Structures are given as structure tokens and as C-alpha cells.
Amino acid sequence: MRTRVLGCGALVLGLIGVTACSSDGTDDSASTTAQTATTAAPASTAAPATTAGDGPADQPTSMEGWEALWAEERAAVVARIQENGWGVKEDGSQLVGPGGFTIDLARCPASWSDTEGMTDTEVKIGYPVAQSGPNAEAGGIGRAHDALFRHYNEQGVYTDVNDKTRQVRMLLRDDAYDPARTIPLVDELIDSEKVFAVETLGTPSTLRTYDKLNERCIPQPLVASGHPAFGDPVNHPWTTASSISYSTEAVIWGVFVEQHLDELGGKAKVASLRMNNDFGASYHAALEAYFADSPRKDDIEYVSESFEPAAATLKDEMTTLAAEDPDVFIGMSTGSTCTQFVTESALNGMKESVDYKFMSSACKATGPVTRDVVGEDSDGWWSVGGGLKDALTEEYDDDPFIVAAREFIDEAGYELTPSYNLGLYYSWALSQALQIAGQLDGGLTRTNLILALRSLEMTHPMLLPGITFNMDGNEDAYLVEGSDVSYWDAEQQTWVQDSIADLPGRTPLCAWDQAGSRCG
Predict the structure, then answer these.
(1) pTM score, two decimals?
(2) Phi-psi region for residue 493, left (φ > 0), alpha (ψ -120 to 50) or beta?
């Protein structure tokens, strides 16, 4: 078996130096400033790896402990906001927050309401999310929201400073991961249902709706995408990022390739299969840019094939890539196509001939690679996985939040699948932000929700120890900038953590130029 070792010290240096340049096209001298990153030694079992240095603080061992910790952290966020005088100005003209964050409320429509979508007893949140088609597995993200909010609704946690206790109601809609369907669904949610906020899933759907939602001053919290465009608090202040940026993920791939060049004979051919949309393009552009600037660029050849999101098969594209005889393969996809390229690689010989095979974090979250789906074909595949715990594995049978989540998902009548991990990640964060917003001056409002999100700093129960979770206005627009690097062990039927890198505050803002498909 290949020794699975990732030099995280070098990985961190690569991220600090390149992410800033590839994301916004500027030379950010601050990117060379030393900042400690959490790194892990290689792991030989499915247990979480031990982090370097002092390591992360121990996580609570009971739900009572978790809830007490979160209460303290929410209170600290509220105190920081109040001590700094952040919020809506007395004349109602502007929302101000950390790091120079501002929203000019005078630009909101004349009919805009800071409390639309809520009554004294309910707050409505709309969510177009794929529940059919090739990416139907992503429907678990929406169902996890429904289950978590049902659980906390019963506990009455959404009580604000005005003594209003509200139930959070999720309005799920099926857009089949098709932006042409997302657009009218968003229109229905904001014009007919008049929801308080709208979550969206996927890069294409979010890019085609975030201008409208920002112009209408409607929160678009925690979009289910790692596209760098959503780290733009200046031009799109009502839209908040959630996951590790795809550009940062691509840089980790690039550093991994550099670190393994000697093992691969001093030179390597890297092949990627990318979804032909903004999602795939962001991965492709970031990796291409990294290799172009690499000190080993003469030793690395990069080739890529694209496929349509609705493609029934990937055989032709995978056959073409197999003919390239690559040393490294990277699948830049999501949903059912992830299992397709895993299966095709076994059929065309790439499973054995390619030294390192990666799937995206989106694949890890939405594309099951268990024995009942792909047999043994997924054994040895790698992923920069986004740092999430996996609620489906026995490894977390003693994790109090995972145990509780399994129970309330079952009570809601749902069956746990891989995408529920992401759903729990997003919905927990939104739940905490709603509770914080309710404790700010004026109680729960749209502006207070955005302020809470832009100030969030908490311990997320779905993140592996050592990965921080925070946002800081215009200074840091990404909640998560760390990830595990893991490989699939077919015998254990689990992802085995090889290492962790955490770089809070290091991913630059991105004013996305849709015409040029790059950060401006």
C-alpha cells in the first residue's frame, strides 16, 4: 500500500502564497505574513488525526455541554456587536458591521421591509434545492434543514428580545440543479410567499439569482457552494459564503501534486474532468492558474475535459482522459456524476494506472462511494473534503451532536444519506445566526440576520477538530478556510483522514466578473 503522507507545512506555504494571487489577481503582501495553521500527521485508521502544536480544544462530550458552549459563544458575538455599536444607524440609512462592512439601506426598494416573511409566531425561509435529476441526492441538504428546525422549534429556541417566540418554516422547492428552474422558484418565494430569506444550492443557480436578491435587500445566507464569487461582502452584502472556496481547494490539489512529483518520477501529467458550468470552471481556472505560477510548472502537464451537467454517461470523456495516461486525476463534479467517473475509471483501467485520484469536496458530500453503490471501485480515492464529520460512519457513534442529529432526522421521517452532512452544517449555522439576530437591538430582522452572519465565530459541531468557523465583515468573508485531506478505505467503508490544514482569514474577497469568469 502506498504511504499516504502529506507535508502540511509545505501545503500551508503554498496556500498562503497562491490563494491570494489566484483569487483576485492582486499581489497581497499580507499573504506572506506568517500565520499558524493547524496540521495533522498521517492517519492509519479512521479516527481523527492528531493535530500539530497545541492542537484543537477538546469538544464537548454531551449535548448539554454543546448547548452550554454555544450559548456562551452566541452571547460573545452579541456582546461584540453591541460594544462596537454595529447595527442599523438611528436614521435607518445604513447597516454597519465588522471590518468596514456596510449596507446602504437607502438603495433598498421603497416597498422593502426589514421584517417581511415573519409574523409574531413564524419566520419563512425559502430553499430551491435539487430533489430530482442527476443531483437529486442534494435534496438531503434541504431535508436536513427541515429536520433540524423542527427539532429546535419544539424547544422554543427562537425567542427574541421582544419576547416573540417563532417557528422557523422551510419552504423547499425542487429546482433539479437547473438554474432555469431556480429563477422562477426564487421569484415565487420572494413575490408570492414573501419569505424572510432565500437559500440557494449550487454555483449556477446562485450566480443567476444573487444580483436580484441583493438588489431587493433579501438575505441569501450560507449558499450551498464554495465558489469564490460568494465571498463578496462589498458588492453582494446580502449573500454569504459557507464552504471552503473552490479556489482554495484547487490550490491544495496543486500543492499535493508538487509534493509528490519526486515520487512520480520528477514529472507528472494531471488530468481533470470538469462539469461544464460556473462550478466546474472555478475549479479548472484556479488549478490552471496554480500550475502556471508553480516553480515546478515545467514538470507538470495539465489536461482537462468537460461534460454537460445533464450528461447521461461520462464514458467518452473518461476514455479520452485515460488515453492521456495521467499520473493524477481530479474529478470536478457533484452528485451522481461522481460515482459515474469512479466506475468509469475502473472500467477503463485508470483505477490501477493513475497514482492519485481525487474527487471534489462536492462529490464527497453528494456522491456516495460506498460498497453498495460502486463496489470496491472507490478504494484509494482521495478528496480535499471540506472538513466535515461523516454522520453515516460508525466513527461518530459516540459524537453527541451526530447521535442527536440522527435521532431528529429519523423523527422527521427521513433517511440519512451523504448530503445530510452538508445540510446539518448549513442549517446549524443558520439556526445559530437566527438566535443571535434575535438578541440584537430590535430583535429578529433581516439586517440583524446579516449582521449576525458577518460577525459569526463559533465552534461548529459538524467540523473536524482543528478547523475554525468564523466570519468578520469585510475582513474575512469565508466561514471555513480549512479542510481535511482524506482517502477512501473500502475495507473500512470510511474516509480516512490523512491531514488537516486551516487558514482562517487567508482567502481574499472576490468581486466576480461573470463575463470573464474570474475575480475582478
Answers:
(1) 0.84
(2) left
